[in-house]
Design brief:
alpha+beta
């Protein structure tokens, strides 16, 4: 702001100064014509000039004497104020100076000329002694000789006087305008500072609340300016942190809950075996069977948690290679067929004869397909149908698994959440801890594909797996692990 005021003030002073010089030059141009006429009236001794321009006779002496003419010039010059009057001869040399007799004999340059009232007026920038002047000159009548031999009259005004007048005229209003502008700038700066400081202070306080564990804190500055953009980003971050913390708490609570049931069974039946309360062989075999099943359940959950942690941290090793998806689907269908028939389910597989292979890790692809088919067989109503279909989608292969959902309709937006179950009452009977689909989606992502879910028009649940297809050129199986996505940090050791 100060720089702007300084620049504008300087520019205004330059313009006003130039205007003062122009006005002074015009004044001198007009004044020199008047003074030239007054000078010529004093050239005659009797102060009269004939119509022909020649002095009237006076005892045969028409011209004034040099002394008398000099005195008359002094009277004329006394009306000039600070301006300076000079007379110069035909060679542009000074013959009279109203302020400095020492300037007589100096030569004056003329830089340009103009015409006023049909009379030529010459303008000049003059250096007289140690001072610089602007001047206006016009010719005297040449019909008779001048007592001093003058042919031109010059009026000059000091440049420093004109500049001082410009400064004198400009400085007071400029200072007033500058003061008002500075006061206004301070007020505006104060308002802007407060407007900026308030949301920044609010952001700082909200950040402290988030750091202290109050994840529900939000800021109100969410406008379209820069502070509003930062405020909106902060609120999104706070929501993400709150959601992550909620998921973490839910995750720990679910893990604790899922571990509590099998561990309770393990402790109870092992205690019964140790204290001898199970006396008959049949009771002991039943307890051993339950202990084995619950131990397998804990082991399975531990493995699923380990797989999920490895995928999310990018530490899962993959062996990406061309996989015959058709053969893989046939094998997966054969593995779940017995369980499907036990529940009266009908399995259908539809795929083209020329289905291209996909780029995937065979073991992880088996894990994904096993989770999808196992989920469909577990939760499809008895006597219904599970349909599996594979087809080519440009440079990808889509595998869809559809099944009716019965009375407990799952939420497609939450179906991949950890420990989510569409029918919580069947958790123990159905097996698993609700991590299979969450792991499957992560495995699909790290292999360059995707896994989504939706409910179709008929109300059936459709799980869609997209994997990249192998190009038409012959593909060689990869013998060493390679990066599936940027999220992975592959290791060269063999898979477990």
């Amino acid at each position: 702001m100060a720089v702007s005021l300084l620049l504008s003030g300087t520019l205004t002073w330059v313009l006003v100064r130039q205007l003062e010089f122009d006005n002074a030059q015009k004044f001198l141009d007009q004044s020199v014509l008047v003074y030239s006429q007054r000078i010529q009236t004093h050239e005659c001794l009797n102060l009269a000039v004939l119509p022909s321009g020649v002095c009237a006779p006076n005892n045969q002496r028409g011209l004034a004497t040099t002394g008398q003419f000099t005195l008359d010039l002094g009277d004329i010059a006394s009306t000039l104020g600070s301006d300076r009057m000079l007379l110069i001869d035909k060679n542009r040399r000074v013959v009279y100076d109203s302020q400095d007799a020492g300037a007589v004999g100096a030569q004056l340059p003329v830089t340009k000329s103009t015409v006023l009232n049909q009379v030529r007026v010459d303008e000049a920038n003059l250096l007289l002694g140690d001072g610089q002047y602007i001047g206006a000159a016009t010719a005297l009548s040449a019909k008779h000789p001048d007592p001093m031999g003058a042919r031109f009259v010059v009026l000059a005004r000091p440049r420093v006087e004109i500049a001082a007048k410009a400064t004198q005229d400009l400085v007071p209003p400029l200072l007033e305008a500058g003061g008002v502008s500075l006061l206004g700038a301070l007020i505006v700066a104060l308002l802007i500072g407060r407007a900026l400081a308030r949301p920044l202070h609010e952001l700082g306080s909200a950040a402290e609340d988030i750091a202290a564990g109050n994840y529900s804190t939000r800021v109100r500055s969410t406008g379209g300016d820069e502070i509003g953009v930062v405020g909106s980003a902060f609120n999104r971050m706070a929501e993400a942190v709150e959601r992550a913390r909620t998921l973490q708490r839910d995750f720990l609570a679910n893990v604790s809950h899922e571990l509590k049931t099998p561990l309770t069974s393990l402790i109870g039946f092992s205690q019964a075996l140790m204290d001898g309360s199970l006396r008959t062989p049949e009771e002991q075999r039943r307890a051993a069977t339950i202990l084995h099943e619950e131990a397998e359940r804990v082991l399975r959950m531990s493995q699923e948690l380990l797989d999920l942690a490895r995928v999310e941290s990018g530490q899962l090793s993959l062996h990406i290679q061309p996989v015959d998806l058709g053969v893989q689907l046939q094998q997966e269908m054969d593995m779940v067929r017995a369980r499907a028939e036990a529940r009266g389910l009908m399995l259908q597989l539809a795929m083209p004869a020329s289905l291209p292979p996909v780029q995937a890790d065979p073991e992880r692809l088996h894990q994904i397909l096993d989770n999808l088919l196992d989920n469909a067989v577990k939760y499809a109503p008895e006597g219904s149908e599970v349909r599996v279909r594979a087809e080519v989608r440009e440079d990808q292969v889509e595998t869809s698994v559809r099944n009716p959902v019965g009375t407990h309709r799952p939420d497609p937006d939450r179906i991949f959440d950890r420990f989510y179950r569409g029918d919580p009452s069947r958790a123990s009977a159905a097996g698993g801890v609700g991590l299979g689909l969450a792991i499957s989606r992560e495995l699909a992502s790290v292999q360059g594909g995707s896994l989504t879910a939706h409910l179709d028009e008929g109300g059936d649940l459709a799980m869609r797996l997209l994997l990249p297809a192998v190009p038409d050129q012959p593909a060689q199986p990869a013998e060493t692990p390679r990066r599936a996505t940027d999220r992975l940090r592959l290791r060269p050791e063999p898979r477990a």
